[in-house]
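Sequence, please.
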């Protein structure tokens, strides 16, 4: 049993097929298929159900996949520890970042980090939504991931920034000129939300349920610019951290403060509680605090 075989199996499952997995592991599709077949032959059981272009795990495959992700994560941790011997002159840091707020919060950190530690290879993985990032963190694909609080119990975390949520309304909406608005006052306005897997969507929907109503969702998207365009065209109301809403201001939209005090966007950097945190990761966390100051 070899790590390359385990990596092939894990990525086939994660990516949903042999062809996309081959792109992730930088191999040919036939090489990935051969690695999985060798693993099946060695173990003496089929690991995948192959249905056309789709693959699913067999019962044995589920057990092997679970163990394989842990073994690969432990291997990555070991390699990270070995990088410590070389100090911060060499090594790598794998970061998972979401599409919301990363350009504002982490681009300045990345620039300064590269200037101070040019020998560290910072590998950025962008995922749509906190759920996907948390899965990557648990599997060891990334060492640090930006995620919204509250963080899962198996993670440690460092707060980066808190921002109140604001309602982004069409300029001609009756409430667009108000200084503030309650979530309940927007119950008859269609919502433009982020897609499934985004913590920000859950925050808004949970607040609506607490207020006693189920919103009408006009659209879901993973693209901030597209959501702002939909709001500007009069489709409905979207909800963003204040700093992002102010950056996206235009003549067609208005950002209005929400009165609910608990409706906030609290971005953190999280890591597995049982994982070894590399010197590069600790340096990144220190750099975040240096650039943004102590978050409260």
């Amino acid at each position: 049993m070899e790590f390359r075989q385990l990596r092939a199996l894990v990525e086939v499952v994660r990516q949903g097929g042999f062809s996309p997995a081959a792109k992730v592991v930088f191999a040919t599709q036939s090489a990935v298929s051969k690695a999985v077949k060798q693993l099946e032959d060695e173990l003496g059981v089929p690991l995948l159900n192959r249905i056309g272009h789709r693959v699913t795990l067999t019962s044995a495959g589920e057990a092997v996949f679970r163990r394989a992700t842990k073994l690969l994560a432990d291997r990555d941790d070991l390699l990270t520890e070995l990088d410590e011997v070389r100090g911060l002159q060499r090594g790598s840091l794998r970061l998972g970042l979401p599409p919301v707020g990363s350009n504002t919060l982490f681009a300045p950190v990345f620039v300064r980090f590269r200037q101070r530690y040019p020998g560290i290879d910072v590998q950025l993985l962008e995922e749509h939504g906190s759920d996907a990032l948390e899965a990557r963190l648990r599997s060891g694909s990334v060492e640090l991931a930006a995620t919204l609080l509250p963080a899962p119990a198996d993670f440690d975390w460092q707060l980066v920034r808190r921002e109140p949520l604001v309602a982004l309304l069409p300029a001609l909406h009756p409430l667009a000129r108000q200084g503030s608005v309650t979530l309940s006052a927007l119950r008859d306005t269609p919502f433009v939300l982020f897609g499934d897997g985004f913590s920000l969507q859950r925050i808004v929907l949970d607040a609506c349920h607490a207020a006693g109503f189920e919103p009408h969702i006009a659209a879901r998207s993973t693209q901030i610019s597209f959501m702002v365009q939909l709001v500007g065209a009069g489709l409905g109301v979207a909800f963003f951290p204040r700093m992002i809403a102010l950056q996206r201001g235009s003549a067609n939209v208005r950002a209005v403060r929400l009165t609910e005090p608990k409706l906030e966007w609290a971005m953190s950097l999280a890591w597995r509680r049982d994982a070894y945190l590399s010197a590069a990761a600790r340096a990144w966390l220190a750099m975040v605090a240096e650039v943004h100051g102590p978050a409260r």
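The mean pLDDT is 89.
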